[in-house]
Design goal:
Elements lengths: L3 H15 L5 H6 L5 E8 L3 E2 L3 H11 L4 E4 L6 E2 L4 E8 H31 L6 E3 L9 H10 L13 E3 L1 H7 L2 H9 L8 E5 L2 H9 L4 E5 L3 H11 L4 E5 L7 H6 L4 E3 L2 H4 L6 E7 L1
Parallel strand pairs: 6-11, 7-8, 8-9, 9-10, 10-11
Antiparallel strand pairs: 1-5, 1-12, 2-4, 3-5
Length: 279
């Protein structure tokens, strides 16, 4: 699902950032003939993402490194599980260790957080989606990790769909005038979403037949009323101040989508370590 050229460019950026010209420690300390085996070991429970990308780091550093991925993206792993094994030049393993772990640990953190939220809304109509609150340059792997965790992607970028947020509406004048003006210019494949803050704005958005309506920072009672008023005429997206503690209650209001920036912008790193044994 991720383009190989993007993955390789990302890895090369990470390696160039980490090694300007030599690894002063490994290159000066170790001989080219030194060979070791390595294991990637989970230090927490969670969902794996980025396994193949982590192994690709070592392939780009040294084509002679042999790797075996024992877990697949999407697998639920336990603390102590061996995720992958590698064998090759010791200095090559050490050069790739941090870049590989940085990528895998962050992607697994996103997948783990997403899976937690998806499980919390099971049995409801709601799907869990990420947002554009991603790290520059890492959006593809972050959005991929959300899907690995069982979530869905919101629009990838500003070119994917028209979304009138509060600032657009305030700047243009009203929901009705903004939607009508936009509809005259967008192509027939472009969907329009409108952010609403009140039930009055919701009704206005429904009157101009938008595709998706965001319920921004509404309380549970107001969201439930919005679902009843909408009655399937548009997709409803709940957003703003959604947490693991309240996401189940939000889903029970009947909304179609729950979007969380926290899936990508504030996850805690999933801990994986690499342990080396000299041959």
């Amino acid at each position: 699902m991720l383009s190989q050229f993007y993955i390789d460019d990302l890895i090369k950026t990470a390696l160039t950032e980490d090694i300007h010209y030599i690894d002063v420690t490994s290159d000066l300390l170790l001989d080219d003939n030194d060979v070791s085996t390595a294991k990637f070991i989970a230090k927490a429970d969670g969902v794996l993402a980025g396994g193949k990308i982590a192994m690709r780091v070592f392939e780009l550093i040294d084509k002679d490194i042999a790797s075996a991925l024992l877990k697949s993206d999407g697998d639920e792993i336990k603390k102590g599980d061996v995720i992958a094994t590698l064998k090759g030049r010791t200095k090559s393993l050490l050069k790739g260790e941090r870049s590989a772990l940085n990528i895998m640990c962050h992607m697994s953190a996103v997948a783990t957080r997403t899976r937690e939220c998806v499980k919390l809304v099971e049995g409801t109509n709601a799907s869990v989606a990420c947002t554009r609150k991603t790290l520059p340059g890492l959006r593809p792997i972050q959005k991929y990790a959300v899907m690995v965790g069982g979530g869905k992607n919101h629009r990838y970028n500003l070119s994917d769909a028209a979304m009138l947020k509060d600032n657009h509406i305030d700047a243009y004048g009203s929901i009705t005038s903004a939607v009508n003006a936009l509809r005259e210019k967008v192509g027939h494949m472009v969907k329009i979403e409108v952010e609403t803050r009140t039930l009055e704005e919701l009704k206005e958005a429904l009157a101009v037949n938008v595709d998706v309506i965001m319920l921004d920072n509404m309380d549970l009672d107001t969201m439930a009323k919005a679902v009843k008023i909408t009655n399937g005429k548009a997709k409803l997206e709940a957003s703003g101040n959604i947490t693991k503690e309240n996401i189940a209650d939000v889903a029970k209001t009947g909304v179609d989508i729950i979007s969380l920036g926290a899936l990508t912008h504030s996850v805690e790193c999933f801990d994986v370590s690499m342990k080396i044994t000299k041959e």
